Amino acid sequence: MYQSVFTNRREFIKKMAVLSAMTAAAGMFPGIIFAEEQEKGIPDGANLDWKKAPCRFCGVGCGVLIGTENGKAIAVKGDPKSPVNKGLCCVKGYHSIMAMYGKDRLKKPLVKKNGRYVETSMKEALDLVASKMQETIKEHGKDAVSIYGSGQWTIPDGYVASKLFKGCIGTNNVEANARLCMATAVTGFLSSFGLDEPMGCYEDIDYADTFVLWGNNMAEMHPVLFSRLLDQRLKRGVKIIDFATRTTRTSMAADKTIIFNPQTDLAVANAICYEIINNGWMNTAFVEEHCNFSKGLTNMGYGLEDHYKFTDRPEAISFEEYKAFLEDYTPEKVSGLSGVSVKDIKYLAAHFGDPNKKVMSLWCMGMNQHSRGTWINNLVYNIHLLTGKISSPGNSPFSLTGQPSACGTVREVGTLTHKLPHGVVANKEHREFAAKIWDVPVENIDPKPTYHTVEMFRALDRGDIRFMWIQVTNPMVTMPKLKRYRDGAKKEGRFIVVSDVYPTPTTDIADVILPSAMWVEREGLYGNSERRTQYFEQMLEPPGEALSDTVQLIEVAKRMGFEKQFYYKDETHIEEIYSEYRRHHEGKKHNMAPLEVLKNQPGAMWPYVDGKETKWRFNAKYDPACTNGKDFHFYGKKDGRAVIWQRPYEPAAEEPDADYPFWLGTGRVVEHWHTGSMTRRIPVLHQAMPHAYVELHPEDAERMQIRTGDMVKLTTRRGEISLPASVNQRGVPAPRQVFVPFFDEQMLINDITLDSFCPISKEPDYKKCAVKVEKA
Ligand SMILES: Nc1nc2c(c(=O)[nH]1)N[C@H]1C(S)=C(S)[C@@H](COP(=O)(O)OP(=O)(O)OC[C@H]3O[C@@H](n4cnc5c(=O)[nH]c(N)nc54)[C@H](O)[C@@H]3O)O[C@H]1N2
Ligand SMILES: Nc1nc2c(c(=O)[nH]1)N[C@H]1C(S)=C(S)[C@@H](COP(=O)(O)OP(=O)(O)OC[C@H]3O[C@@H](n4cnc5c(=O)[nH]c(N)nc54)[C@H](O)[C@@H]3O)O[C@H]1N2
Ligand code: SF4
Ligand SMILES: [Mo]
């Protein structure tokens, strides 16, 4: 039996076009769609069986209740018991179950033979994957095979992937798309505090007086959490300050929007520190007791050269040295560069400086996808450390995650090349500890990290990597400077396995496509932004031969001869895998709640110690791991002190010039999840946002005589694409800037983005490159 996946994709694209032609207005009335579906005979919901799960989509981690009847999920509501969302959901949450029912769900494995995809059984497909991996290792060595996963992997998926590749095969070729997303948050935390993940939690929202959003569009990207900020404003009159490079729906809801030039957040943050120190707002007792000052290397490049190596060399400095450094960042000096008025810089600083105000900073990709991302993370921590506004209710620098399990599966499980579940591969004790739990010889674990994500795709292009297994991510839409990496992946002698639930541009380049069981079609766990681990049970049967990503990996591991390490007795393996995984994190600093607890409540925050969650880490009042006898203990650092970093302003990797006079920034919209593979198959979401566009500032549009809907050609040094214009619609960029969302695989903005990255975190800067803008 032959089935071409391309036929499916053509059908999908055709259907998208038909739906786009329908008026957007219809999309505003979901009732129309549901009525249509109801006619097709959706059950009436009289005998619904409700079960809890974390939402499939974003890192907020809302609790949802899913109603199933006759083996189908037919209703969703917010879980009123969840402390995260207290019964509320956003549009994606409410429509989440529909993402499982797209007509072209992958149901059978497909193997490419003579340029066509041939259906095969799961057993044969897994045999092929295992033998291909073994063959590649034999011919090209263990570092020629790799796995590229995701912050949408469940915790068990990531755990078994790491165990198979790092522990059994012995290669550190394990990366995840969180490298494109949260890697900078990790290096920010590690350099400032020595331990990853926020010290505070969502409850901070209930106590903070001022919220500073550092270039994130919470109204669209973390909608339910944002509604908690709005709720506090109604109740207590708190202030929401939107500090951003463009006006968004978040700006519309904020009390004040301050627009700055891209990349200059570095300078403004330093100016805030200058103001704090020079106005006597520093919490001297806190700084003397709990902080050190440090500086690192500067001019570290932009990761653009292949094989680029950079190692930071931190050096202690004195407070006086740090204070002298800040003289370059007076509000007056920074104002011209940043485009922010002196008054607004002082306004921002005064909120942090006021001893009677509790301040919560929130950020996401504006600060992380930044060629100096680690630095800007450090700088925001500096502000909170200088004022002592940290690790206590309402005083909270809070780095938000994007994906449902970016924290749970990538940061906590450690599915990055240099990481282990507990610790790093370079550390002998950490290797010994992991090897013992994994039941492998310690020599198996290679002490040297191999490739981070961008380098991994460069290695695939060069031929150093020959085999790549891609799970729960769609890199052929989401890699920066995409064309180069697509051409590389398609070269002769590369073998690509893709596990997905729908055909995508990434399955288009696959040699084997494995259909996956999605979300509640299997059992799993996610970990959200506030260190909350949440469990979900299997509620539905996966379609056709679809298997969970965990089981796919285990089956291949067994075929490769690792039966002993992957011998799990219970049927879905999740219970055993999770309790094995928990052993890596035992102790007061990171203990995870047992599965029985997670089965009965909407998640628990780690460190989970003596049956209790730790809400504020490093604060002796709340955190049992504090042992220095003081009020705060930053125990991630050997001397118990957090680091205030001297980090200068440096320009972006590519800035507008005469040939490419605009900034190009990219990002998201509320209706779609990343590459739209799921949300574009939900009619109501697709119709509300049928295709990508380019946002222009109204003055630029007028000068070029461009109106909404006109085609605009964007050209960068990497190539060109054309998209319809959007003027004064949802978002408005600053003059000489354009913004494009990346959800639309038919208008691949990443074909023209730049693959520069923060040399410390290796996270690409998707927010900045230079572009020429013309009416097409
Ligand atoms: N609806 C929906 N929600 C999502 C997602 C989704 O796909 N759809 N994805 C999830 C994921 S994985 C993520 S990572 C998050 C992303 O959430 P966000 O980071 O909030 O969203 P983005 O649209 O990526 O970021 C755009 C913002 O970057 C800021 N920016 C641009 N340049 C700079 C700069 O130089 N400095 C600073 N500080 N800011 C700058 C701009 O102000 C702009 O509004 O959303 C999560 N939530
Ligand atoms: N230009 C630009 N590019 C960006 C960004 C940006 O801001 N601008 N942001 C970056 C960031 S922060 C992120 S997080 C990435 C996201 O980038 P990706 O992870 O590449 O995008 P997704 O669409 O989330 O891909 C998830 C894939 O998993 C599939 N899937 C869903 N459920 C399952 C399952 O249970 N099992 C399996 N095997 N597959 C499943 C979906 O169909 C989809 O194809 O994009 C990055 N790329
Ligand atoms: S805010 Fe995020 S987690 Fe909550 S319902 Fe929306 S997409 Fe789901
Ligand atoms: Mo992300």
TrEMBL record:
Keywords in alphabetical order: 4Fe-4S, Electron transport, Iron, Iron-sulfur, Metal-binding, Molybdenum, Nitrate assimilation, Oxidoreductase, Periplasm, Signal, Transport
Enzyme Commission numbers on file: 1.9.6.1
Signal peptide: 1-35
InterPro entries, per database record: Asp_de-COase-like_dom_sf, CT_Nitrate-R-NapA-like, MoPterin_dinucl-bd_dom, Mopterin_OxRdtase, Mopterin_OxRdtase_4Fe-4S_dom, MopterinOxRdtase_cofactor_BS, Periplasm_NO3_reductase_lsu, Prok_molybdopt-oxidoreductase
One GO BP annotation of this record: cellular respiration
Domain annotation 4Fe-4S Mo/W bis-MGD-type: ranges: 48-104
Post-translational modification: Predicted to be exported by the Tat system. The position of the signal peptide cleavage has not been experimentally proven.
Ligand binding (Mo-bis(molybdopterin guanine dinucleotide)): 92, 152, 177, 181, 263-265, 365, 369, 474, 499-500, 549, 666-675, 750, 767
GO annotations of cellular component type: extracellular region; membrane; nitrate reductase complex
Molecular function GO terms recorded: 4 iron, 4 sulfur cluster binding; electron transfer activity; iron ion binding; molybdenum ion binding; molybdopterin cofactor binding; nitrate reductase (cytochrome) activity
Cofactor(s) required for function per UniProt: Mo-bis(molybdopterin guanine dinucleotide); [4Fe-4S] cluster
The keyword Cell cycle appears for this protein: no
Superkingdom of source: Bacteria
Primary localisation category: secreted
Cofactor: how bound: Binds 1 molybdenum-bis(molybdopterin guanine dinucleotide) (Mo-bis-MGD) cofactor per subunit.
Reported function: Catalytic subunit of the nitrate reductase complex NapAB. Receives electrons from NapB and catalyzes the reduction of nitrate to nitrite.
Quaternary structure annotation from Swiss-Prot or TrEMBL: Component of the nitrate reductase NapAB complex composed of NapA and NapB.
Membership in a protein family: Belongs to the prokaryotic molybdopterin-containing oxidoreductase family. NasA/NapA/NarB subfamily.
HAMAP family attached to this UniProt entry: Nitrate_reduct_NapA
Protein name per the record: Nitrate reductase
Gene symbol of the encoding locus: napA
